[in-house]
Amino acid sequence: MEDLTERRLVVVTGASSGIGLAAAVNLACRGDWVVLVGRDPARLQAAAERVRENSGERPELFRADFAVLDDVRRLAERLREAYDRIDVLANNAGAIALQPLTTVDGFELSIQANHLAPFLLTNLLADRIGRIVVTASGAHRSGALDPDDLNKPLRRYRPLVAYGTSKQANILFTAEAARRWPDIPAHSFHPGVVRTRFANDSRVVALGMRILPFRSPEKGAETLVWLANQAPARLVDGGYYADRRLRQPYRKAADPQLAARLWAASAKAVGIAE
Predict the structure, then answer these.
(1) How many helices and strands, by DSSP H and E, does the chain display?
(2) Strand 186-190 relative to strand 240-242, pairing
(3) In the chain, which ranges are continuous DSSP H helix?
(4) What is the pLDDT of residue 200?
């Protein structure tokens, strides 16, 4: 295994394109040892080549589909076998469903891929993580999270509401992680409206955000990289950031009681002890 004594190990999920890949390239060029996690093997290989071309080193690759919780459990096992520590875990993988879809685990796709899967992965690796960075979104304002019914969006499905609900969960999870794990700095951020494969494939997003200026993936990744590199003492633990500045999330994403309820419901949903 690579000698990581003088280098940080950074695991980036959703790293085969967009913000995740841009962040991985940036971090690798800064000297970090990056590990890419993605769903599609061919796109992961292409991403690895992009990182190698820019940094001179080929990253490690791990395939996992966050729509399958058993994939997440296997991913955690493989990461634990490979690395004694993970200096930064960037929970960046994301999905939006244009129609109501239920995963093999029985959950609405957005809430599972964007929240339950990274929640499970982070919990399974918590004893080895040095820092958590979570890709959230300003779309959390459209969320309508109900911890007692994580599948509520399925009954009157609106893609942006379901997506916003999962992004609301991201911010609440980050704040609650900071409270529960005071030794692990945790931060979430809004990357802006980024022109990525994710946005291009999501017709609803394209229609709903046509009037907004799109950012490049590199611009969208700036705050992720910044949060990964800032001294924790310079940041607010559990804080939500945009453009490298602390922001106040919408009130329903800033409720400590709701965050605690979400944590308990998520732990039950993925089958781990709270």
Answers:
(1) 10, 8
(2) parallel
(3) 18-29, 41-55, 69-82, 109-111, 117-125, 159-180, 197-201, 203-208, 217-229, 256-270
(4) 45
Q: Has 163 been annotated as catalytic?
A: yes
> pLDDT for 158-199, tens place per residue?
999 999 999 999 999 999 999 999 999 999 999 977 655 544
Listed residue (32, 33, 59) closest to 48, CA to CA: 59
Tokens of 135: 């890709």
Q: How does 184-193 read in b/e, with b if 16+ C-beta sit within 10 Å?
A: bbbbbbbbbb
- Total number of residues shown for the chain: 274
Residue from 83, 157, 163, 240 carrying the catalytic annotation: 163
Full-model pTM? 0.92
Higher-scoring residue by pLDDT: 18, 208: 18
The long-range contacts involving 245-249, CB below 8 angstroms and separated by at least 24 positions, are: 247/190, 249/140, 249/171
**pLDDT tens digits, residue range 25-55?**
999 999 999 999 999 999 999 999 999 999 9
Burial of 107 (0-12, 13-18, 19+ CB in 10 A): buried
